[in-house]
Amino acid sequence: MKVAFYSFGGCDGCSYELLNLDEDLLNAIQKYGVEIAHSVIFGVPTESRDYDVAFVEGTIASEEDATKIREIREKSRILVAMGSCAALSGIPGLRRFTEEKEVRRVYRGVELDHKPLKEAAPLGKFVKVDYHLRGCPTSKTEFLELLDKIASGKWWRQGERRFDYSREKTFDIEGTAVTLDGEKCYVCGRCVKICEEITNAIDYANRSVDTIVSTPFKVKFDESSCISCGLCTLYCPVGAMKERSSVKNVQEILEAGENLTAYVEPEVIAALGEALDVEADVGGRLATALKRLGFQKVVLWKPQNQLRLDGLVIIPGSEGEARFVELFYPDLLRYLTEPPKLEEGNAVWFTPCVARKLGKTLVLTTRELTRLLGTLDLSLVTVGRFDQTLLGEENEDETVATGIPQMRETLEKIRRKSLKKGIVRLYCCPEGCLFGGGQPFANSQPKGNREQILARMLGPERN
Amino acid sequence: MEVKIAPVSRVVGHITLNVKIEEDEIKAKLKVLNDPRFIEALVVGRRYDEVPEIVSRICGPCSVNHTLASIVALENALGVKPSEDVELLRELLCQAVNIQNQAVHLYFLALPDLVGCENIVDLVRQYPAAVKTGLELKTSGNRLIEAIAGRIVHPTACVVGGFTETPSQGRIDHAIRMLEESRKYAVEAADLFLGFEVPELDSVSDLHLVTCGQSKYPFVGSSLSASDGTVFASSDYAKSIEEEPQTYTTAKYCLLNGSSFYVGSRARLNVYAKGLADSAAEYVSKLRLPLRNPFENIPAKAIETLHCVERCIGILNAIKDRKLKTKSDVRVSAGEGVGTLEAPRGVLIHDSNVDENGIVRRYNVITPTALNGKHIEASLEELAKERIDQGKSDEELKLGLGSLVRAYDPCLGCATHMVEIAIERL
């Protein structure tokens, strides 16, 4: 095990405390095969290209140190913040409570080579920390325990969390479009991470081994700030976060032999082709496949409202964006139109959007479409044609905002009255519907840009 | 030509060394790269009883000394008179820290240089017996610190007015047993470290500074004495010791009446050799006092360790069956006070100014490494000059310079608690 000890702004008491382990330290070094790859105090000033574990003490208080700690993070498999300073900023961190003039007295306008930052910060402010060793100075016994765990492989990282896996008794969080099955969840935190980019509807709750991922107080998704974008369902590795599926309903209706029309959005075709690795004429093949499943009519459909107005109109891409405006920009509701209308009746809508499920029951995402197709191999069916193509025209004076940051920016502009005219289209998923919450998880980067993909996938249908 | 060692290893903290060698001049620069932490600014506006806890974090290895110096300074400011037992225990504590710190320095930081090991790991592999001796010695010091101060690093029992708890009989007995045991290790250490041949080097300036106190080999005292004969009260330190700021380092180095000087074991031994315990005094005859060579700091540390073990056993036996008074009442009043004592690396000065509500209005700390800084640089220049005259190679020169820095045992955590730069840019 290659171990490094680094020390930043602090008293070096933690390293010193480790020396006070005396023979236990020497025994541990021998027992776990520790190779000290860097430590100034142990007389190993050279640095290695990589470390298994880096123990870092002290606060980050200068630009040089910030660069250095990032470098250490890159090199280390496990980064341990050792002691109160590294974990919480400790005594040096008190500087933020000290009057500015007291600290300024120190410089008197002289530029030091070593530029101190405005405050002494814990490591976590700059890099991801895998484990925090507590105490001022750090706890000797906890250090040995951690070393033991790392060496024996009993220790592992759970997303952002550092504790072993344990779960609260089963709980479910309901929602119209998205649901969470608490029993499946193992608190990896990917959904929390992605939701940070949307509306922070889900977060960690409780402490230590009781930690769960939940909406505030486990309220239903519809009652939280969730806008049902469905990105959490896309990122969940165990299927704990799931969209409410309508595959069964559709199958039942098809089996009953009812007359059904399929409306397919172009983004579905694009993502489907990539997910199933079919390069050409996916649209045509899908049309055939859907007919084979029992759909009477297949329509290529892209919602485009044909509005000609003098003032300002905000068109949400789906019910999700409408909910977003309702929650965060209620003052702009008067500009908001309905999301593109889905007709009730004998129609099934295939869309990349999970939030559309808020509006209508028979809405299937691309992921559900793959389930519906089942074993039907798209590359083997003949290339057919859509019965009808309903693609709206794009207007010239349109503002398109994709992703929450862009949406916020645009809505702020409207609020400040610097945007007064035209059509504003909102799509909440980062990079737009092609990367929507209902799309299959693409392992590779999309080949080419959005327009190219669409052109390639749609083939002759586009024109 | 420029010789650069970055970082200097086996020291507490982060330090680099630049020696610029030109035809007529050699310039050494000791760059401390630990971040300034503004500890003195942090305590301003806080109540007096928070201060020892905070300033303790200046330095982990000698946290006990910082705590005690701060307490003494605050007691002087508030006009609190601690009991004799408390003063005795503080003296004891300083010696215990000395045993522990010197053991670490001798066996883990300095010994690899002397036996030609690259680092501690090699040392453990090649000289397990020596490492064990060092550990035993350190542990005995540690147990005594724990018995009195509660914890080894950042003590919990030391407060303004005395101690929160009187050391229990059992713990004192245990500490005595441990120290009795480690007496033989201390003798072993003295034999070992006086046996090494010390590299030749004549100090540029022989000026040194120590604390004056009640006992024969004092560690806590209320005045300072310099080797040129001047003695001044601790509270007048600012008149003699002048802090000279440097732009290239985050530590401020000091001058005593305009010239560089040194503090630490070598200075203490030079002044108080007559006050040593008998067994330690025997070893002094092997050295020529005063010790003018900075490398002799290492044998001085070994002798001191033995002395401290003896003295600690003596004090502990004397207080063993006595009921100790370890608390005094604290009444808050405005005032100024300075606390000086001997940390393992030398004189430590804490200076406080408290208002009538017990709120700290001004605070200043001068640490041994800051006091030594200029002297280290001067010695490095001297060493470089001598070695170049002898025609030594760069590699040998580097090794020599590194071990010279380590002989002073600089502690950079201490040195960089704060920079106050008074020079003005044009």
Question: Can you describe this structure in just a few lines?
Answer:
With 463 residues, chain A is an alpha/beta fold. Chain A has 15 helices and 20 strands.
The number of strands of chain A is: 20
Please state the average pLDDT score of chain B: 86
Strand content of chain A: 15-25%
What's the Cα radius of gyration of chain A? 28 Å
CATH architecture of chain B: Orthogonal Bundle
Strand order of the biggest β-sheet of chain A: 2-1-3-5-7
First-residue to last-residue Cα separation of chain B: 31 Å
Could you name the ranges of chain A where pLDDT drops below 50 across 5 or more consecutive residues?
158-168, 459-463
Integer average pLDDT of chain A = 82
Q: What is the CATH top level name of chain B?
A: Mainly Alpha
Shape of chain A: elongated
Describe the SSE topology.
The complex is a heterodimer of chains A (463) and B (426).
Chain A (H helix, E strand, L loop, with lengths): L1 E6 L5 H7 L3 H9 L3 E4 L12 E7 L2 E3 H13 E7 H6 L11 H8 L8 E6 L9 E3 L6 H13 L19 E2 L4 E4 L8 H6 L7 E3 L6 E3 L16 H5 L5 E3 L3 H9 L5 E4 L1 H11 L5 H12 L3 E6 L9 E5 L2 H10 L18 E5 L11 E3 H8 L14 E4 L6 E5 L1 H12 L6 E6 L22 H9 L5
Parallel strand pairs in A: 1-2, 1-3, 3-5, 5-7, 13-14, 13-16, 14-18, 15-20, 16-17, 19-20
Antiparallel strand pairs in A: 4-6, 8-9, 9-12, 10-11
Helix pairs in contact in A: 10-15
Chain B lengths: L1 E4 L9 E7 L4 E7 L6 H5 L7 H5 L7 H16 L5 H32 L4 H7 L1 H22 L8 E2 L2 E2 L5 H27 L13 E4 L7 E2 L1 E4 L4 E3 L3 H4 E4 L8 E4 L8 H8 L5 H7 L12 H23 L15 E9 L2 E9 L5 E7 L1 H22 L4 H15 L3 H4 L11
Antiparallel strand pairs in B: 1-2, 2-3, 4-5, 6-8, 7-12, 8-9, 10-11, 12-13, 13-14
Helix pairs in contact in B: 4-6, 4-11, 6-7, 7-11, 10-11, 12-13
